[in-house]
Amino acid sequence: MAPKLVLYEIIASPPVRAVKMLAKALDLELELKTVDLFNKEQYKPEYMKINPTHTVPTLDDNGQIVWDSHAILIYLVDKYAKNDSMYPKDLVKRAIVNQFLFCDASIFDKFVGIVKPILYGNVKGLADWQKESLIDSFEAVERILEGKKFLTGNDVTIADISLVVTLSSANLVVPIDFKKFTKIAAWMKNMESLSYYEPNAVGLKVHAEILKKFIN
Ligand SMILES: N[C@@H](CCC(=O)N[C@@H](CS)C(=O)NCC(=O)O)C(=O)O
């Protein structure tokens, strides 16, 4: 019997898009429950009970709650993937994937720190230091991708999924200079050609519409 996986989500959210990409890759069906962040539904006591950090995504796997996209990606591969290529069991290989997952978490946090006050506060636009800070992350990713098709080499892992959703949304706020960052450009093309990329494309469009109203 197929597992009953409920995902608390909002379509535009980058970390939600990562979980949806992986679910598609693993052929897992998700029952989606929208948490309307603009109406502060994430602060409802019943939601805060399952995710005290009031964020999406949150996964409910037949009563087992897991929140934070990175933790959810790890959980889904460990539990449901037919092989370990996306999150290797080998200690060293796994450490390298973890390294990039945590790297993504830092970049995403930077992105949220910039966008949240614009979307939910009264801040208008980005300061130069904020743009420079994201560009510094683009430079790091460009160095990481040197000589590699994906972050860890030839195999796509959950770290690539995590990072592509973050960078594709960061690109809406601080456009990535793809002529300069040629390795990021090639990697993004490789990611876009994956059969399970669609949830990022769909959510990214919605994210672009939302951000467009606030950032020009
Ligand atoms: N590290 C978390 C970040 C999740 C996150 O910040 N999600 C945003 C939406 S993109 C959110 O739910 N924000 C609502 C809030 O912080 O109250 C993850 O990877 O799941």
TrEMBL record:
**Superkingdom, according to UniProt?**
Eukaryota
A single GO molecular-function term is: catalytic activity
Instruction: Give residue ranges for domain GST C-terminal.
Output: 90-214
Which Pfam families does the record cross-reference, listed alphabetically?
Answer: GST_C (PF00043), GST_N (PF02798)
User: Which CDD domains does the record match to this protein?
Assistant: GST_C_Delta_Epsilon (cd03177), GST_N_Delta_Epsilon (cd03045)
Q: Which PROSITE patterns match?
A: GST_CTER (PS50405), GST_NTER (PS50404)
Name the family the entry cites: Belongs to the GST superfamily.
Q: How does it assemble?
A: Homodimer.
Its recorded name reads: Uncharacterized protein
Species whose genome carries this gene = Cryptolaemus montrouzieri
